[in-house]
Each structure stands twice: as C-alpha cells, then as structure tokens.
C-alpha cells in the first residue's frame, strides 16, 4: 500500500529533464506518487522512474478528480504551469501541492529571488550603474539568524513598497516590470561577492568595468562571512528554494579566489553553476556528474568565433565549445546553454551556429534570453524574430527550450506561440 500525502492521491506533472531529481527528492520525504502526467502524447503510455506517464485527463479518470499535483519543472516555469492548469479549469488552486498561482504586480526579478553577499552587506540586486539609486542592501552583522532575519524583513518591506508604488531605493529602476511573480519569495540565486573577478567583458554586463579590482582588505572582509552557517539558516527557516538548484554566481566562479571555500559549502546542495566555460573546472565536473539536480548554465551568445569575441570580449569560442563537450559528453554532466539575443548576434548565421553547438555538445536544454536592461516597449523587432527563429530551430532539433522572463510576459507569450 502506497503512503499518501495527507491522505491525498498524489501525481507528478511533467516528465521532463528535472523529473528524476524532483521525484527522488519527494520520495525522500515519504510521499509516494501514483503516476506522472505530461501533455506530450509521444510520452504517454511509457514508464519513467517506475511511474506510468498519462495525460492529466486519463489520470483524473483513473484516480479521481481529487488528486494532488506536484509540478516537477523548475521555477519560473513551475509557477507558469500551475497558473495555466488552474486558469484552464483542469485543476483547482488547492490541488497544486508545490506551486502557488502567481500574483500579478510591479516587481523586480532580482529583489524576488537573489541573495548577493558583499564585504559588509547583503545586496538585493547588482545595481545598474547610474540607472537608479544605490542598490538596496542590509548590513550583515550578528549571528546567522540575525543576518537572515534582517535580510528577509528588509526584502519583504521593499517588495511591498515597489508593489504599492511607494518611494524606495528601487524607485525608477528599469528592471521594474508588471508580471506574474512567485509567491514564496525564497532565495534562488546566491552570489558570493559582486566584485570578484571575471575574465570576460560581455557587452551586456553592467559590471564589466568594475571587475578585477579586488583588494586584500576586501577579500579578507568577505572571507570572514560565515557562508556555511548563513546558507544553513536560510534552509532551516524555509527561505532557501531546495526543490530547485541553487543558482550560484560569483563573477566567474572558476577564477574566484574563494572558490574552494564555496565548493565545500555547497557540495551537498543541488547547484546551477553559472560559468562562461573558458576554464575547465574539475570540481564543477564532479559535482554535475554525481548530483542529479546540478548542472552548468553557460551563456554562449554567439554561433561564430567573430561574433563571440565581439559580444564576450574574448576570443574563446572554440575553447569553450571543447570544454562544454567535455563536461557534457565525456563526463556525462548536465549542461544547459544560454543565448542572450542582442542586435549583435540575432542574424541567421549566429543562431544556426548556436544550434549546431548545442547538438555537438549534446546539451540537455537551451535558454533564450535578452538583455534584461532593454526597454521592452522598444525592443527591436529583429531581436524578437531572432528569438522566434532560434526557438523553432532548437525544438526542430529535439532540444528542450526555455524562454526566459527577460522578454516580459507579453513578448514571451508571442515567442512561445510562434
């Protein structure tokens, strides 16, 4: 007899690449699933992870309309699927077990999910030079409990002010947008210092002129931050999103002077490693090979050597290609590549070259984004058309595609429907 979550009949929704990690995680909590649902008809009737794949309609016919649904995909897609299922009438809001339907209001991607450690404070965003006021932050002092409590209180206060149009350090920031936001407000992105070096100078990076200037005094200060205790406190207080990988950013992690300390702290967590791939890192390779939930997110942003050098500021296209191949094919690790569609790289030659790279490296997914600082009301049509073309080419090649929120709700819908 299967254990039932609070006497509810439980199913999983989504038989994609994150389903194995998610199902393993939920089973460790003592929750047994009856089946897994997916709208892809080609998957229905198959078995994965010991579960039969059914349509949601067939699952309801077999197990009843009172099922509880666990959505296996990563945020933000998880919440979008929940919104779609509920708004279509397929299930009720109460039947969604692990994702709440998003609320629409003016907010900020950074403020809703990031925890950015600096030498004396925790930042809520990385800032955009002179585009708005000093980036909001809270000083880190006292115990790990004090630090987390202060961070959460100040963050929630800022979200409330932005949401209700009140004056705040975020007023006037170009990143503010009206869209559907996650309701849980858990930390998903952790950056260990915004000032640590990067070996690239990408055209869209607002910090590219501030990197590589870390003093010994700065390094000593941030090294005194008790990263392990604060991370554990975020987890135990329910403020860390563990159902999805921690998104680890820190300049370029492979040249971060604190990387050994960081690797030691996050070794038992599922992690999304942001890296440009220019340096092959054996510890990252081990982590993504042994942990089902961990993977690399590498932003390539070009399909030719010439454009890569122009966009990324370094002649590294061939080198990065071989490192990604090694992570994915030779070591069997999970790799996702990202393409930030810009005026400089939205031509057919580069988009086709990126698709060829994804196929060559056998990546599990591709993410399509654009510069998060673009004014979406004036986004060039050629960028939208480039994203549409790239999405179609990738999907026609059998590659899973994610359209990132940087396009905004309206344009994302247009691209997805193309």
Describe this protein's structure.
With 418 residues, the protein is α/β, with parallel strands linked by helices. 36% of the residues lie in helices and 17% in strands. It is built from 14 helices and 17 strands. The strands form three sheets. Strands 9-8-7-11-12-13-14-15-16-17 form a ten-stranded mixed sheet. Strands 3-4-2-1-5 form a five-stranded mixed sheet. The chain has a two-stranded antiparallel ribbon with strand order 6-10. Helix 8 (259-266) links the parallel strand 12 (246-249) and strand 13 (271-274). Helix 12 (348-360) packs parallel to helix 13 and helix 13 (381-396) crosses helix 14. The longest helix has 20 residues, at 144-163. The chain is globular and about 65 Å long. The termini are far apart. The relative contact order is 0.08. Mean pLDDT is 87; it is low at 1-6.
Number of strands: 17
How many helical elements?
14
Which secondary-structure class do the elements indicate?
alpha/beta
Question: What's the Cα radius of gyration?
Answer: 21 Å
Largest beta-sheet details: 10 strands, mixed
The mean pLDDT is 87
Question: How much helix, percentage-wise, in residues?
Answer: 25-40%
**Beta-strand share of residues:** 15-25%
**Order of strands across the biggest sheet?**
9-8-7-11-12-13-14-15-16-17
Show unreliable segments.
Answer: 1-6
Termini distance?
A: 45 Å
Shape by Cα distribution: globular
């Amino acid at each position: 007899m299967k254990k039932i979550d609070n006497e509810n009949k439980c199913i999983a929704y989504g038989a994609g690449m994150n389903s194995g990690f998610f199902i393993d995680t939920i089973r460790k909590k003592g929750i047994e699933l009856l089946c897994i649902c997916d709208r892809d008809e080609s998957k229905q009737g198959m078995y994965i992870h010991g579960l039969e794949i059914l349509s949601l309609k067939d699952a309801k016919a077999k197990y009843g309309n009172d099922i509880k649904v666990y959505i296996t995909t990563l945020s933000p897609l998880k919440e979008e699927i929940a919104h779609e299922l509920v708004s279509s009438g397929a299930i009720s809001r109460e039947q969604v077990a692990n994702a709440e339907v998003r609320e629409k209001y003016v907010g900020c991607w950074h403020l809703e999910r990031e925890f950015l450690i600096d030498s004396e404070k925790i930042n809520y965003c990385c800032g955009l030079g002179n585009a708005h006021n000093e980036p909001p932050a809270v000083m880190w002092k006292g115990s790990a409990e004090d630090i987390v409590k202060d961070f959460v209180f100040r963050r929630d206060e800022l979200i409330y002010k932005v949401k209700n149009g009140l004056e705040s350090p975020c007023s006037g920031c170009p990143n503010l947008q009206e869209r559907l936001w996650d309701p849980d407000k858990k930390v998903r992105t952790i950056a260990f210092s915004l000032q640590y070096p990067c070996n690239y100078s990408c055209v869209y990076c607002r910090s590219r002129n501030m990197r590589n200037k870390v003093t010994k005094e700065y390094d000593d200060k941030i090294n005194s931050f008790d990263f392990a205790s604060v991370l554990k406190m975020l987890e135990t207080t329910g403020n860390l999103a563990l159902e999805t990988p921690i998104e680890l950013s820190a300049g370029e992690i492979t040249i971060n002077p604190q990387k050994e300390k960081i690797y030691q702290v996050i070794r038992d967590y599922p992690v999304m490693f942001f890296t440009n791939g220019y340096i092959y890192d054996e510890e990252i390779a081990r982590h993504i090979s042994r942990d089902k939930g961990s993977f690399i997110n590498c932003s390539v942003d070009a399909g030719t050597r010439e454009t890569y050098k122009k966009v990324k500021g370094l002649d590294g296209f061939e080198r990065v290609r071989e490192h990604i191949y090694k992570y994915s094919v030779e070591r069997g690790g999970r790799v996702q590549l990202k393409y930030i569609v810009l005026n400089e790289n939205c031509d057919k030659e580069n988009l086709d070259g990126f698709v060829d790279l994804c196929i060559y490296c056998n990546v599990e997914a591709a993410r399509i984004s654009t510069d998060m600082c673009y004014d979406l009301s004036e986004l060039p049509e050629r960028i939208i058309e480039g994203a549409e073309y790239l999405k179609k080419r990738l999907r026609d090649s059998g590659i899973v595609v994610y359209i990132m929120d940087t396009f905004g709700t309206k344009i994302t819908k247009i691209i997805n429907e193309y």
